[in-house]
Design brief:
The chain has 339 residues and is α/β, with parallel strands linked by helices. It has helices spanning 10-21, 43-53, 80-89, 123-132, 152-159, 198-205, 245-257, 268-274, 288-305, 320-331, and strands at residues 4-7, 26-28, 35-39, 62-64, 94-99, 114-118, 136-137, 165-168, 179-182, 189-192, 209-210, 236-240, 262-266, 281-283, 308-312. An eleven-stranded mixed sheet has the order 1-8-2-3-7-4-6-5-9-10-11, sandwiched between helices. The chain has a four-stranded parallel sheet with strand order 12-15-13-14, with helices on both faces.
């Protein structure tokens, strides 16, 4: 199969629609990361997504729709506070998990009676979703457990020869996947942190909890991104907290003595305090949004320049940084932890 990367225009959207409506799979941009999309109503298309990604069949998918789509076609109950959240944050990087009408393929939610729905703000994604005018389920467009893609080239590196079309919408500005919140109860519960923070949701709903337990092998995931091992670069990784600078340096010296190329991944202030001038550093940046936008691209870059990646957690832990830390910790989890 020849994989084409095409700019989003009338011609490529016609081709994308033809693929989707015939049960095929298309890579699409969003403001967060690129997605691997197929019709939510087509059982074989959903199955194909799992197979192409090598995705565990107990890890649910998110249905993407355009802003005008009537979600009552696919959700069974819409609590008033969920409507308030949509008004405040959508289109945007927020996914809401509702009771499902059961009209989409049962493979989408892996047998659960819920459905995760999102309205991306990326204009190219909206054009694509309007063109097909059906819910498109789309996990991140990367091989399972690999680093999520923030460019069309990242998608091509993982899926060249496996999918027919990648819609090129440029570099993703968000950089980490959407916040996922369960809205099946009396108040929202965050299942996966992201750019829409707990504090932002509380400002609308008054209360927002966070699902705290880490999933272990055998547990059922209610949302994408809850698996322990995820977002992993193809190099040796270490992760230290913000106070672990000396241990990080000792690790770097030990690995370098073995002839390995060592790079640090950290925020700019930590790099200035820890690393010598000219040392190999992948700079996350300074602001929360900058670090979120840079994370996956730098993890991908690490694969090309480093044998060993030594990551140091940013100092700030809440707000958007809760999502950045969630991804960083999963990306640098020990290679021998079961997943």
């Amino acid at each position: 199969m020849i994989t084409r990367i095409e700019p989003i225009n009338e011609q490529s959207l016609r081709y994308a629609k033809e693929i989707i409506l015939s049960g095929g799979v298309v890579a699409m941009p969003t403001e967060t990361v690129y997605g691997l999309g197929g019709s939510a109503f087509n059982d074989e298309a959903v199955k194909k997504i799992f197979e192409i990604k090598g995705r565990p069949n107990d890890n649910p998918l998110i249905a993407h729709v355009h802003p005008e789509y009537d979600i009552t076609e696919i959700i069974d109950y819409d609590p008033p506070y969920a409507a308030d959240l949509r008004k405040a944050f959508l289109p945007g990087p927020l996914t809401l998990v509702y009771p499902s009408t059961g009209k989409v393929s049962p493979r989408v939610s892996c047998g659960l009676n819920t459905l995760a729905v999102r309205v991306p703000s990326h204009k190219g994604a909206q054009a694509f979703l309007r063109a097909v005018n059906i819910p498109v389920v789309a996990p991140s467009a990367n091989l399972s457990r690999h680093v999520s893609p923030t460019s069309a080239r990242h998608v091509y590196d993982d899926f060249n020869g496996k999918i027919p079309l990648i819609l090129d919408g440029g570099e993703c500005t968000g950089g980490i996947e959407s916040t996922v919140a369960d809205v099946t109860g009396e108040y929202p519960v965050i299942l996966r942190p992201g750019l829409i923070t707990r504090e932002m949701i509380e400002s609308v709903c008054g209360r927002c909890d966070v699902y705290a337990p880490e999933l272990k092998p055998g547990d059922r995931a209610k949302s994408p991104g809850m698996m322990y091992k995820h977002y992993s670069p193809r190099c040796i990784t270490y992760l230290f907290d913000e106070n672990g600078g000396e241990a990080a340096r000792q690790t770097a010296r030990r690995e370098a003595a073995q002839g390995r190329r060592v790079y640090f991944l950290c925020e700019r202030s930590v790099a200035k305090a820890l690393c010598a001038e000219g040392e190999n550093v992948l700079d996350l940046g300074t602001s929360e949004t900058e670090m979120a936008a840079n994370l996956f691209a730098l993890l991908r870059k690490a694969e090309t320049v480093a044998d060993v990646l030594i990551a140091i957690e940013p100092k700030k832990k809440d707000g958007v940084m809760a999502g950045v830390l969630n991804r960083l910790r999963k990306a640098c989890a020990s290679k021998d932890i079961p997943h």
